Amino acid sequence: MGNRAVYCLKEDRKETHFYAHYGANSLSPLLRLWQAMEIQKQLPGNQSLAHIFEHLDYDGGYQEERLPDGDMFFAGIEPGEVGAYEDTYAKGRHLEMWITLDVEENQCILE
Fold it and tell me: Is 55 left (phi over 0), alpha (psi -120 to 50) or beta?
C-alpha cells in the first residue's frame, strides 16, 4: 500500500483536483490547507488556494517558479482527467485516498 491520493479543493464554487504521491494520510490535508492559507495572507493580490496548492513544495514552502513535479507536493489534474482518477480510485488500485477540502463548508472529508 502506498501514499497516493487525490485532493479535491472546493473554493469559490469551483472544484480543483490535485494528485499527491505522498498525500494519503490524516495529517497532510489539514497541514497543507493551513500552509496554503498562511501563504495566501502574505502574497500580494488575492491568490486562490488552488493556485497556492500548485506551488507548494514538500516543505510547505511557496515556489513562485514550480520545481519539477517530483519536488512539489501536488500535481494538478486537468478537469478532463478527473474521471480517470475516479475510476482508478473506485477500483482500489494505485490510489489510497480521496480527500475533499471544502473551504466554503469548512469540511475535510477523507475517504
Answer: alpha
Cα dihedral across residues 4, 6, 9, 10: positive or negative: negative
pLDDT in tens, 40-61: 999 998 999 999 999 999 999 9
In three-state form (DSSP H/G/I as H, E/B as E, the rest C), the secondary structure along the chain is CCCCEEEEEEECCEEEEEEECCCCCCCHHHHHHHHHHHHHHHCCCCCCHHHHHCCEECCCCECCCCCCHHHECCEEECHHHHHHHHHHHHCCCCCCEEEEEECCCCEEEEC
Scan for cell 486562490, then name that residue.
48
- For the stretch 44-103, pLDDT in tens is 989 999 999 999 999 999 999 999 989 999 999 999 999 999 999 999 889 999 999 999
Phi-psi region of 9 (alpha: psi -120 to 50; beta: other; left: phi over 0): beta
* Distance between first and last Cα of the chain: 15
